[in-house]
Amino acid sequence: MQATPGTVIAEVKEEPVLRVENLRQWYRLGTGFFGRRDLVRAVEDVSFDIEPGEVLGLVGESGSGKSTLGRAVLRMTDPTEGRILFEGRDTTRLSRRELRPLRPRMQLIFQDPFSSLNPRMTVRQIVSAPLVIQRPDLDGGARNTRVGEALDLVGLSSQYADRYPHEFSGGQRQRIGIARAFITEPTFLVADEPVSALDVSIQAQIVNLLINIRKKLNLTVLFISHDLAVVGHLCDRVAVMYLGRIVEIAETRALFRRPRHPYTQALFSAVPVPDPTLRRERIILKGDMPSPINPPSGCAFRTRCRYALPACAEAVPVLRKVDEGHLARCIRDDLDLIQEPQL
Predict the structure, then answer these.
(1) pLDDT tens, position by position, 282-328
(2) pLDDT at 237
(3) Considering the chain, what is the average pLDDT of its residues?
């Protein structure tokens, strides 16, 4: 339709591939003292969107709830509360049978390339397993063709298809796991620390492989990692988790240039500076992360925060807008947390 003069054409915004609203993932422990059953609040009131073609990084200490969140958005576990909308459809209300048609479009790359591959299966059997389940209409020849294409996508020769996992290096095994994830042609991918178990030189190869595949297939990715350097290289936006909550989320450059939460500042202070003539203040957090069974009142980070005030214990801070596209869960607007290396 041709617009007449003076007509304002509204820009149609694409729906997010993934929308998470007020997600909670709690687990009940066995009976404790006096018959009480404790709750582990692994994920607590998490909300975020991932736009089509976007890579969202998820960072935080071990035990912060990153992997639990990644598995929850894929409906590998049943969330306690909240909604997960995948391509506009609320998956939290779907049964296992109703979820099955969606499974090929949302896949997972596991962290450990050793334990995630069945040692008794050949590469062909491992990579084709999703097709056996999701595409029973394909015959053996068609599945073999798809296996060859998937291996070629990750830089492995199809002549390796009849070998077993123990015949490959760690980096090659991770490529096999990536091929298995991509063989169903997903639109959304959760990469759960896919390079943390690999040597540094191999990490760079896998990261570059993921970048190339993402561009080729226009993938939407939730990238979980401890490595802020990798996250800064790969991701469009970054979310920071602490004790089950997102405490900050922003575009990668904005977050790296000026974090607005003290926990994010502490994480960045641990990143090595490659130039020996520069130095950065190292922030040492006191104590361990509190237990998700009995989290502190108010701001969960206040027990380790050097900027904490008495008011931080009164109520859980809201994840609020502190700049354009930048949200943080902190009441201290007076802090200047820029962490540039100094001469």
Answers:
(1) 788 888 888 898 899 999 999 999 999 999 999 999 999 999 999 99
(2) 97
(3) 88
Give backbone dihedrals phi and psi of 149, rounded to 5 degrees, phi first: -65, -40
Q: Which residue has the tokens 């599945």?
A: 143
Phi, psi of 124 (to 5 degrees): -60, -45
Question: At 265, phi and psi to the nearest 5?
Answer: -60, -40
pLDDT in tens, 98-116: 999 999 999 999 988 889 9
| Per-residue model confidence (pLDDT) at position 316 | 94
CB 175 within 8 A of CB 182: no
Using the predicted structure, report yes or no on whether residue 130 has a pLDDT greater than 90. Answer: yes
CA–CA separation, 285 and 329 (whole Å): 18
Angular region, 241: left φ>0, alpha ψ -120 to 50, beta rest: beta
Query: Distance between CA 220 and CA 197 in Å, rounded?
Result: 23
CB count in 10 Å sphere of residue 68 = 19
- Taking only the tens place, the pLDDT of each residue in 226-243 is 888 889 989 999 999 999
DSSP string over 319-335: -EEEETTEEE--S-TT-
The yes-or-no verdict on residue 36 having pLDDT over 70 is no
DSSP 280-312: -------SPPPPTTSPPSS-TTTTT-TT--GGG
Q: For residue 109, what is the enclosing H or E element?
A: strand 106-109
Count helices and strands (H / E) in the chain: 9, 12
**Cβ atoms of 79 and 92 closer than 8 Å:** yes
Q: Starting at the edge strand that comes first in sequence, how are the strands of the sheet with 106-109 ordered?
A: 106-109, 188-192, 220-224, 55-59, 237-242, 245-251, 326-328, 320-323
φ/ψ of 307, rounded to 5, equals -105, 10
Examine the pLDDT at 186 and tell me if it is beyond 50: yes
Half-sphere exposure of 252 (CA within 13 A, CB side): 17
